[in-house]
Structures are given as structure tokens and as C-alpha cells.
């Protein structure tokens, strides 16, 4: 049993929102159960960076969906900036998120022709360009798309680097909102680079714009955060607070409000393992590995945040591993794109850039079930998860779950003190067996929870060879 008084008054209001189990924010106790990471399934290669203006250092991919059409923005960079390479910003399009084309936009002349998919060229201000569709109420039509782009501290003196604000009516034709930097790094401030995707968006949860970018904390690559009401004037940045776990180099963040639960931001940062060489020098030389890519390796994590500067790494295990291809085992080879999309009723799609630094560089689609990033899991021997006190709206409980043929899920409703509620005890809940994205939980007397709406309750999940990915209260 739990102490009732404080627990009841501190009940978390979940309303009718979906709660994917990507962290332990709502969990009071696990007994024989654990949180389990579910890596996505690699699918087809969707874009190869094979045009003359793209090349082996293409990257910083951001994908958005606008009225049924997907747009992928990415940096084209045939040779590194140290070798004199010049960055261009390219755009590819798709009607389904699977089959992509590079339209001839006719905007920018490259190598004597405008037959290309370049939207911005030779702009020092466009580093880490990561567009989004502005959902702020009252946004002018000619600013429906926005982005921040930067001059990194590696490309400019200390007093010149910073981020500039861009806007567009259609995602293709862009202009600067201000000739001045809107986020700056001045002399004497903490070092931050602006050379990774400078992720920004309107946060309905926070009622402001947020920007996440790379900085340094204790000589480690980390994530900074700043906010704005107008996209021009930004608060002093802060480093995101850790989760009590050792700092690791996070090269990117790629945060996005999860489309099915936008109060939770989910990110796929590249974890940079400095001086952790996997391949032999002879093998890397034969592969044509860039000299500054010889010493390190990378993979991709799953991270989340529920607000403010708090960063949660529920899992330190890789969400996406480098895999069998040796070209993905050299420095800076693997980067997730920004964006999570539901490409079918039973499928989410994300995108990952591989082979960075090689002529074979490409973007691959990965898939997972809706809400399927992680789960609470119990083996055949069984296990339980009990939530903190919750307040909900609605009259029924749904779960996203999967069992084996021999497995099961049962749910008990408790009061704030942990006492089973009459009619909703574990013995009142028949075994739930199968695999569903949304299944209404029913007890012997039915599924109606209307009498409990607004009252503090706990959920006790009892699992046997089963996963629960998410739960949600709904009103019919």
C-alpha cells in the first residue's frame, strides 16, 4: 500500500492524452517487470546523396509533412569545409514518405544550371538549417515555415557565430526575418558550436518557441535550450540538466513533439564515442575514410523531455546500432533525421543518414509500431507495473500492447493508497491476449469508468510474456 493523503493531492492529470511509456515519469513501482527499448526495423534506402552539389558530407536532415506532402531538407556538401567545400540547402519531396524525388526547382544556379533541388546556396547563415511548420495561432501566411540557421564557432570568430531566423510561405522560397543574429554566442560565454541541426518549433505545451542546439558541458558535447515568444527575441540559453547518469557526447538532438502525444518531445541524438576506433587503419584507408573520421564511432539513442530543461535518457543502450556495414563504424557516420511520421495505421517512420563521409552516403527509412519506442515488459514468469496516482477524463481505458500466445495483460484500478477499487480488482479483469494498437480494457462488469473520472486512481498492470507500449483514457 501507498501513503494516501499526499499521493491523492499530487495526482498527475493525464486527461485523455496518450501516454507512451518512454520514461518512468508516471511509474511508482516495477516488480518483476522492466522498461524495454524497441529498436526500429530498417527498411529501404529513400535518398542517395549522389548529385554533384550533394556528396559524401551531406546531412543535417529535417523532414516535415505539409498537407499530405513530405519535404526533406538537407545539407549538400561534396567536400568538407576544411577542403573548401560550400554548403547548399536541398529539398526532396514525397507523397507517401517512402518514394522520394528531387524536384528541379530552378531557384539557384549550381555549376552553370538551375536544374537542381537547391533552395539556399552560399549562405553562411544556413548552417544546421532545420525547418518546421509553425503551428502558433495567428502565424502570418508568409511565415508558415520557419527555421534557424547558424554560423558555427568553427567557421567564424567568437563574436560572429550565432543563429539567424528564416521564414517561408511554402517551404521552398526562404528569406531572413532579421539581418541580425537572433541567438548569439559572444566573447566569454560558454562554448557552443551551432554546427549541428539547430532544432526549433512552436511548443503548444510550453506556449512558446523552443530551440535545441549543441553546446559543451564539462568538455562533453551536450544539448542547450532557449525559448522565445516571437522567434526573434530569445531567452538566455541553458544547458539541459542531466538525469543523474554519466554525461556522454551527444552530437545532435532532433527533438520533435511526438505526433500522438505532443506533450512529450522525443529525440534521436547521435552518440559520439570519441577515440573508440573499431576498424583497422588499413581497412579504413582502403574504404577511403576521411582522415578526421579514423578514430571514433557513433550510434543513435532515444531521449525525451516532458518540459523545461530536463533531459531524460531512460536507456543508455543504442536505439539504432551501426550494423554490419563497416562504413557505419567510422566517425560521424550515423545521424537520425528530425521527424516522426505515421505512414500507415500500424506504422511509424523515421529516417537515418548512414555512410557519412563516403560517396555512398544515403538516407534510410526505419519503421516501428505506433508508440513502439519502448514498453513495460515482463517475461513468462510475470511482472507488474504500478503507476503514480493519476487523474483522467473519459469513461474507458485503452492500451497499446502485445503478448505471446501464452502471455497476457491484466489491469487493476486502485485508489491513491493502492487499494483495489470494487469491480476493478485484478480478479475482475479477464486476461487480455493478442496484439493491438488500441484495445479497450474491460472488467467483468464492463469497461465504463465514467464514475471514476476526475478522481485520483492508480493503474496496476500485471503482465506475462507481454509488452504495454502506451495507455490512454478516452471519452465516447
Q: If you had to describe this structure to a student in words, what would you say it looks like?
A:
The protein folds into two domains: 4-36 and 376-474, Jelly Rolls, CATH 2.60.120; 41-368, 5 Propeller (Tachylectin-2, Chain A). Helix content is 3%, strand content 41%. The protein has two helices and 34 strands. It has helices at residues 4-9, 281-287; strands at residues 12-15, 19-20, 27-31, 34-37, 41-48, 59-66, 69-76, 88-94, 100-101, 118-121, 132-133, 145-151, 162-168, 175-176, 183-184, 199-203, 208-217, 220-228, 238-239, 256-258, 261-267, 270-273, 297-300, 303-305, 335-336, 341-344, 347-354, 362-368, 374-378, 383-387, 390-392, 396-414, 435-440, 458-474. Strands 2, 3, 4, 29, 30, 32, 33 and 34 form an eight-stranded antiparallel beta sheet that branches. Strands 5, 25, 26, 27 and 28 form a five-stranded antiparallel beta sheet that branches. Strands 6, 7, 8, 9 and 10 form a five-stranded antiparallel beta sheet that branches. The protein is globular.
Amino acid at each position: 500500500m501507498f501513503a494516501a493523503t499526499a499521493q491523492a493531492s499530487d495526482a498527475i492529470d493525464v486527461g485523455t492524452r496518450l501516454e507512451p511509456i518512454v520514461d518512468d515519469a508516471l511509474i511508482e513501482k516495477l516488480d518483476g517487470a522492466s522498461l524495454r527499448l524497441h529498436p526500429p526495423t530498417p527498411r529501404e534506402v529513400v535518398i542517395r546523396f549522389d548529385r554533384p552539389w550533394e556528396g559524401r558530407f551531406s546531412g543535417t536532415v529535417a523532414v516535415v509533412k505539409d498537407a499530405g506532402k513530405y519535404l526533406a531538407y538537407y545539407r549538400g556538401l561534396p567536400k568538407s569545409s576544411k577542403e573548401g567545400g560550400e554548403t547548399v540547402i536541398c529539398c526532396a519531396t514525397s507523397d507517401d514518405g517512402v518514394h522520394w524525388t528531387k524536384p528541379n526547382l530552378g531557384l539557384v544556379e549550381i555549376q552553370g544550371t538551375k536544374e537542381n533541388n537547391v533552395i539556399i546556396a552560399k549562405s553562411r547563415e544556413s548552417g544546421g538549417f532545420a525547418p518546421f511548420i509553425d503551428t502558433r495561432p495567428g502565424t502570418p501566411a508568409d511565415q508558415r515555415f520557419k527555421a534557424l540557421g547558424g554560423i558555427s564557432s568553427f567557421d567564424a570568430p567568437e563574436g560572429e557565430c550565432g543563429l539567424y531566423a528564416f521564414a517561408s510561405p511554402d517551404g521552398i522560397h526562404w528569406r531572413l526575418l532579421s539581418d541580425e543574429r537572433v541567438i548569439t554566442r559572444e566573447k566569454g560565454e560558454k562554448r557552443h558550436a551551432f554546427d549541428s541541426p539547430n532544432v526549433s518549433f512552436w511548443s503548444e505545451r510550453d506556449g512558446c518557441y523552443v530551440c535545441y542546439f549543441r553546446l559543451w558541458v564539462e568538455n562533453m558535447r551536450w544539448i542547450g535550450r532557449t525559448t522565445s515568444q516571437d522567434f526573434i527575441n530569445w531567452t538566455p540559453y541553458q544547458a539541459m540538466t542531466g538525469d543523474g547518469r554519466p554525461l556522454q557526447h551527444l552530437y545532435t538532438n532532433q527533438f520533435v513533439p511526438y505526433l500522438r502525444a505532443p506533450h512529450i518531445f522525443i529525440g534521436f541524438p547521435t552518440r559520439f564515442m570519441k577515440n573508440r576506433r573499431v576498424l583497422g587503419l588499413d581497412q579504413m584507408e582502403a574504404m577511403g575514410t576521411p582522415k578526421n573520421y579514423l578514430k571514433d564511432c557513433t550510434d543513435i539513442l532515444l531521449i525525451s523531455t516532458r518540459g523545461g530543461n530536463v533531459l531524460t535518457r531512460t536507456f543508455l543502450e543504442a536505439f539504432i546500432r551501426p550494423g554490419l556495414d563497416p562504413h557505419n563504424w567510422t566517425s560521424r557516420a550515423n545521424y537520425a533525421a528530425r521527424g516522426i511520421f505515421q505512414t500507415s495505421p500500424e506504422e511509424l517512420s523515421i529516417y537515418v543518414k548512414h555512410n557519412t563521409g563516403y560517396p555512398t552516403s544515403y538516407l534510410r527509412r526505419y519503421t516501428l509500431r505506433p508508440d513502439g519506442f519502448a514498453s513495460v515488459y515482463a517475461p513468462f514468469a510475470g511482472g507488474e507495473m504500478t503507476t503514480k496516482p493519476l487523474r483522467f477524463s473519459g469513461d474507458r481505458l485503452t492500451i497499446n500492447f502485445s503478448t505471446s500466445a501464452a502471455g497476457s495483460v491484466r489491469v487493476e484500478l486502485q485508489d491513491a493508497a493502492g487499494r483495489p477499487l470494487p469491480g476493478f480488482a485484478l480478479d475482475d479483469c479477464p486476461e487480455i491476449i493478442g496484439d493491438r494498437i488500441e484495445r479497450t480494457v474491460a472488467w467483468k462488469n464492463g469497461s465504463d469508468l465514467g464514475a471514476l473520472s476526475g478522481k485520483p486512481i492508480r493503474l496496476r498492470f500485471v503482465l506475462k510474456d507481454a509488452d504495454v507500449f502506451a495507455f490512454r483514457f478516452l471519452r465516447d
